[in-house]
From TrEMBL:
Protein name: Prepilin-type cleavage/methylation protein
Originating organism: Cetobacterium somerae ATCC BAA-474
Keywords, alphabetical: Membrane, Transmembrane, Transmembrane helix
Segments passing through the bilayer: 12-34
């Protein structure tokens, strides 16, 4: 047998090393794709919510009529109807995210608010949007300043809020950090 002849096949260890490298690279890519999808879903939900409310408060202002908006956190949709009529429009929010509105010291799975004839809302409230891991990611604040007569929506991005998730959002919202918006950056 010729000792100069090279082995053209892979050894068992070389095969295992190749499989491990492929697994590590694919895991990294999967994580990056998942984070990218979460980022896109968060952005999409913020834009849907903001556009929806602006559309119907402005419509109220121009038409001098009122609309009722219902936010259904369980079914993840926004409904609007003229008072005492059927639904005019229904928009769906990204399914993998969670949403919560804190109002009157409680969590609200369905939240109703009316528009006013002067382009505002009947009540101010805050909506939280949670990422895929149930950590709070966005805070959407609806302000109803009577002097301005027009709805003001501020969107905040989580920059340094730690350990706040879907389960403990009520406690956080009424805490000192929550009230002062510590760790949030306005978009």
């Amino acid at each position: 047998m010729n000792k100069n002849k090279k082995n053209k096949g892979l050894t068992f260890l070389e095969t295992i090393a190749c499989v491990a490298i492929i697994f590590i690279v694919s895991s990294f890519l999967f994580y990056k794709i998942l984070k990218y999808n979460e980022k896109m879903d968060l952005e999409k939900s913020r834009r849907i919510i903001q556009t929806f409310f602006i559309k119907y408060t402005m419509r109220s202002l121009y038409e001098k009529s009122k609309y009722q908006i219902e936010i259904d956190m369980l079914n993840k949709n926004l409904n609007v109807k003229k008072l005492n009529s059927e639904i005019i429009e229904k928009l769906y929010l990204p399914e993998k995210l969670k949403y919560e509105i804190i109002y009157d010291n409680s969590r609200n799975q369905k939240f109703k608010v009316d528009t006013t004839k002067n382009g505002n809302l009947s009540k101010a409230f805050t909506m939280y949007i949670f990422g895929y891991s149930n950590q709070v990611e966005n805070r959407v604040a609806f302000y109803t300043f009577q002097k301005e007569r027009v709805l003001k929506i501020n969107i905040y991005l989580n920059r340094d809020v730690k350990d706040v998730n879907y389960e403990n959002i009520l406690n956080y919202h009424y805490s000192q950090n929550g009230q002062n918006r510590i760790g949030w950056m306005e978009e």
